[in-house]
Amino acid sequence: AIARELKICDEGDRTLSGVELDRMSDEELDEELDRIKVFARVNPAHKLRVVKAFRRREEIVAVTGDGVNDAPAITEADIGIAMGIKGTDVTKEASDMILLDDNFATIESAIEEGRRIYDNIAKFIHFLLSCNIGEVFVMFVGTMVGLPLPLIPVQILWVNLITDGLPALALGVDPPEPDLLTRKPVSPLKGFLSGREPLNLLLEGFTIGIAALLAFVIILNRGEDIIYARTCAFTVLVLAQLFHSINCRSLKLPLWKINPFENRYLIIAFAGSVILHFMIIYIKPIADIFGVIALPADEFILVLLLSIIPLVGVQLVRTIKDFLKK
Fold it and tell me: Among the residues of the chain, which ranges form H helices?
């Protein structure tokens, strides 16, 4: 009756009492587990047995409790949650998380915050690795095909410190994605670089590198000098990585499913990096240090067209995938 009042189960849903649980073997419990909505009138040993049954199925299990008798089940669970006000010291010691206000609704907020932090770490790593792959691609392929160095060391250092660093920090405080609480839990055995992630990193990194290398080759073939060509390649690399940071607001969803302007820190990092880069190009003493020269306004048509290739490419692939799922 209490479970129905709390909307945990409906009329006709399968419930199991502690007495019925005692009569079942572990194999029978495993078979019935999917159909059972509520376990009623159970003792601490029953709770521990139920937790073990779920863990045998490789489910992520959370257990709440406040008394000493709850400690074994809390310890066995993936996430043990103790009550901060009514909970005993033994239960708190055995738990992974303590509800300071004893409010179950706080658990949802904690799950959301934990998933957001996990997501943002993944975005941070994804952005930095894909950008670094792009930089390696430019230098390695450029050298292998016999081109002059597309970038000089001080330019690569600038890209790593500013163009990579500022957006990466902004992605670390990204707001939660709209589907955050509807996803399945991430397996504890799954790393950041599992599944298709390495392939995605390579493809996105290669796209960034190809855009910068194309700028270098196109300008050289036009008969411009090496410094002018490097300036264009350098600028395309910087802008392509900044546009790619917008891709990394989500690692799966297309931009039209999220608010691309929700992260104000990323907007500040994007704008700040662009301003700093233009200062390098157009302030003569700094330009000399970085081995670049001022670009005419009409050159930015080519620069921008090449720079948005990573953004357009990634969003096109994600939109197609999203369409095919429906």
Answer: 2-5, 18-23, 26-32, 44-56, 71-76, 89-94, 105-144, 153-158, 165-171, 197-221, 226-247, 264-282, 284-290, 299-307, 309-325
Name the 3-class secondary structure at 40.
Answer: strand
Tokens 């490419």 belong to residue: 313
User: What one-letter code names the amino acid at 57?
Assistant: R
In this structure, the number of other CB atoms found within 10 A of the CB of residue 205 comes to 21
CATH number for the region 107-325 comes to: 1.20.1110.10
Spatial neighbors of 200 by CB under 8 A, at least 6 apart, are 126, 130, 251
In whole angstroms, give the CA distance from residue 18 to residue 30. 15
pTM, rounded to two decimals? 0.86
The pLDDT score that the predictor gives to residue 1 is 65
d(CA 158, CA 164): 9
**Residue in 228, 165, 210 with CA at minimum distance from that of residue 307:** 210
Amino acid 322: pLDDT:
87
Query: What pLDDT shows up at residue 131?
Result: 96
Which amino acid makes up residue 22?
D
Domain 2-105 indexed as CATH 3.40.50.1000: yes
**Domains in the chain: boundaries:** 2-105, 107-325
User: How does DSSP classify residue 193?
Assistant: T
Ranges in the chain, pLDDT < 70 = 1, 326
